[in-house]
Amino acid sequence: MAHTAPLPIAIVMTSFEPGGTERQMIELVRRLDRARWTVHVACFEGKGAWFPRAAEVAASVAEFPVRSFKSARTARHIAAFARWCRANQMAIVHTTELYSNIFGLPGAALAGVPVRIGNRREINPDKSGAQIAMQRAAYAFAHTVVANSRAAAARLRAERVPARKIAIVPNGVDFDRVRDHQPRPRLRKVVVVANLRREKGHDVLIDAAVDVLRRFPDAAFEIVGGGPELEPLLARAEQRGVLHAFTFLGHRDDVPARLADADLFVLPSRSEAFPNAVLEAMAAGLPVVASGVGGILELVDDGRTGLLAPAGEAQPLAERIAALMADPILAARLGAAARDAARARYSFDRMVAAFDSIYSSELTRRGVVAADQPQWAAS
Question: Do 312 and 364 lie in a common domain?
């Protein structure tokens, strides 16, 4: 039987704390066309700095308090999730990252949800063998697994997810929030926007700062983001004699203002799928220095829209930062090219339209909606 719009869809999230995946998926929740979709949210815990942004627009929010996948209670939560899906007649369940994939895809299959969409938004090497195996098993219940970069898609293929099931939808930027960076004749202030986790490479930047400060003693480094590595990073900066040049701001809601106030953006990550922070810096026209890894290679064209450095190596990173501080004309050229590239390819409108198209195609393919219904032509 053909269904008519709007159809119920569940977006499954595990966290509403500030982060790249959370920002992208909350924007999806907020921006999906309500003439086509009734958007529900399932989560492990209904709290966090960004929870109100999702809750205020969702048709409903349901909590399933999973604390450990080793607990027998988790099976009961999956069964409860399946009952919730059936009660709301979900046409689609869309999971968003590792734990929601492991939880939501089997639960949606148990409920008989006709379209099940998984996600891969990271390529971090810090996942255990058990986590990777559990996620790979969960992907078997998905009809499509969406990666946010070619690098993430390659990781899926390496984990033996069939290529026919993989789609790529890059992240988006809210250009209305972006504040254009104005080129300056003197460049000294570096900003990093990244949670304080080892894979983000803040320790490498601290080591690079030693060389940068030898050439530019008035250079300053502003770190936006919180996380478990704060104390080790403070200790490292003190040990290297550069703590005076670093300011750790923690989580901030005024990231566009922090970018506009800076001269250079740096992301020295060891691993990235498709970093929102680089994308937002590029959209603002801020000169970028980043590691040449993962999805950063898809975002930054080395020497044209930014400069790339080998991951984990302080000396090359310092050289590239110093090169831009010494050459404001080069920095301005790279920033302008980055702005043009980001604005041409990475809007939230494009991202939402791509997900909508995947949803509609799967619904049609599985006979949930009739192919000749105009409202289900992919948007």
Answer: no
Cβ atoms 96, 12 nearer than 8 A: yes
In terms of domains, do 331 and 369 share one? no
**242-252: pLDDT as tens digits:** 999 999 999 99
Distance CA 274, CA 294 (A): 7
pLDDT at 371 over 80: no
The pLDDT tens digits of the residues spanning 73-125 come to 999 999 999 999 999 999 999 999 999 999 999 999 999 999 999 999 988 66
Number of independent structural domains in the chain: 2
Domain CATH code at residue 331: 3.40.50.2000
Reported pTM: 0.88
